[in-house]
Amino acid sequence: MLGAIVGDIVGSIYEFNNHRSQDFSLFGEGCDFTDDTVLTVAVADCLIKAGNYAEYIKHYARKYPQVKGGYGGRFAQWIHSENMEPYSSWGNGSAMRVSSIGFAYDDWESVMNEAKRSSEVTHNHPEGIKGAQATAVSIYMARNGQSKEQIKAAIAKSFGYDLDRTLDEIRPVYVFNESCQGTVPEAIIAFLESADFEDAIRNAVSLGGDTDTLTCITGGIAEAFYGGVPKDIADKALSYLPQAMREVVEEFRTRYRLC
To answer: pLDDT for 43-84, tens place per residue?
Structure first.
């Protein structure tokens, strides 16, 4: 899940100022964590404490209200209401916060079920659930030694995503898209075409679109596949986080043997 945080921070300055190239400073001026990191940590903390996803997600969003880029409109309304019911979203928020589930569970069925549970507290639309499941399953497969070809085939078959496109085909026509169906496949392709963790992050940024979220999703998968995040990149990303968040990240990584 640290890879997802890295992706969020690196991509944070390009969300509304897309950079269609791999040539950029990895942690550019103005980088910071966004709601993607806040909610990624919320889900990880919920797993550690065996808590309730809705309660943890709402608690973290209220605890960190002033994040770069803010929270989505409908999600912001949900945060500040007393209502705990979902609102049938198909947005990519379900996929950007799910990475820890792919690291925490050790079989396909458990990953699928838990990703669904984490999604449907807000994003209970079928596409929202599917996006979370596809992301978590990609991470589960990657950390268990499956090849890129195996991951691609399984995700395409199970979720119906078109993963046969290339980055060069996507980049010229890709636009800002907050949906799971318009973000998760592209994030997976950015991983599939990568040579290492940093290359995956650069691939994702180069696509444009909802860059922090797309790169967050790619980063989680790349971390799992490449066996972690390079130490210099990990240390830099953690330096952006409040101490309380860093402690959750470290506890999660220790518990699930990611250190």
So the answer is: 999 999 999 999 999 999 999 998 988 898 899 999 999 999
Domain contains 39: no
Supply the mean pLDDT for the chain: 96
CA nearest 94: which of 138, 136, 49, 62? Answer: 136
| Identity of the residue numbered 21 | S
Distance CA 62, CA 188 (A): 30
| CA 18 to chain CA mean position, Å | 18
Domain presence at residue 226? yes
For residues 59 and 201, give the distance between their C-alpha atoms in angstroms, rounded to a whole number. Answer: 29
- Per the structure, the count of domains in the chain is 1
Q: Is the pLDDT of residue 258 over 80?
A: no
User: How much of the chain is in helix, strand and coil states, percent to nearest 5?
Assistant: 60, 0, 40
The model carries a pTM of 0.97
